[in-house]
TrEMBL record:
GO cellular component, one term: Golgi membrane
A GO term for molecular function: KDEL sequence binding
Keywords: Cytoplasmic vesicle, Endoplasmic reticulum, ER-Golgi transport, Membrane, Protein transport, Receptor, Transmembrane, Transmembrane helix, Transport
Localization terms from the record: Cytoplasmic vesicle, COPI-coated vesicle membrane; Endoplasmic reticulum membrane; Golgi apparatus membrane
Membrane topology designation: Multi-pass membrane protein
Transmembrane portions of the chain: 161-178, 215-235, 247-268, 274-295
Protein family per UniProt: Belongs to the ERD2 family.
Protein name (database record): ER lumen protein-retaining receptor
GO biological process: one example: protein transport
InterPro entries per the UniProt record, alphabetical: ER_ret_rcpt
Highest taxon of source: Eukaryota
Amino acid sequence: MCACVGKDPSQAPPIDCEGKKGAWLFLSSPRLLRFPSLTPPTSPGVHRARAGCLWPRPRATSLGVRCALAIFGPVAGSSPRFSSSSSSSSSAAAGAMNVFRLTGDLSHLAAIIILLLKIWKTRSCAGISGKSQLLFALVFTTRYLDLFTSFISFYNTSMKLIYVACSYATVYLIYMKFKATYDGNHDTFRVEFLVVPVGGLSFLVNHDFSPLEILWTFSIYLESVAILPQLFMISKTGEAETITTHYLFFLGLYRALYLINWIWRYYFEGFFDLIAVVAGVVQTILYCDFFYLYVTKVLKGKKLSLPA
């Protein structure tokens, strides 16, 4: 990410950030404008900025602001280099923190915690699709391989580790600790019909034909359909426990908030990632029917059921 602060770029100290893509420019207004490339004047004492460089403010910021930047850094999105939960291509720099990305991450975290507490407190995983949880574990594993190669911020790394750890903890509870309560007879969705096409698509349509980028793209495509086994299971049983519907609601809310985040980033940052947006729209559409039933039934104290 390249950021010039102030009206005169020559005042900014040079920082070598070779190898990253995208350039950003702060003007005196609070808006952030994105340019495909940015090269400052090459006068004596002023180094040429490479695309992807970061120029900090020439004047020291307050201690509180520096601490916040150290903790949060670039907000969590779905880029393997810059994010923790979903949606920006690894070919673009992470944007500034905005309320929609933050609340989206927190909604995602709330969904995971609700599911884990439901299983642990009831000592049962009845009504939970183990196949969906396996797919989510695969999503986070393939998305956050950059944990071994890069560090963005404490917040970013923490959220990645939490998502990965919680996804595998859920799989462990379903398939090992409370295996006797797992309803495998109704969890019969053929996940190979999701994984194989998604794998092929990630090879054909991606931002860069490299292992990490292909795996990141795979995780984005797979996440958009990973909830299908859970919805299929509910449709087969004809109903879902209230706590399970709360889990699904926060999971869908997370995705809806990220859609708003993309609109925000497009307007204020000029950032647009077609792969993440299309996959996110597909995922949100899958939740539309559930949202309607949640509002018309669960919020009125009734049990949720999906059409068989």
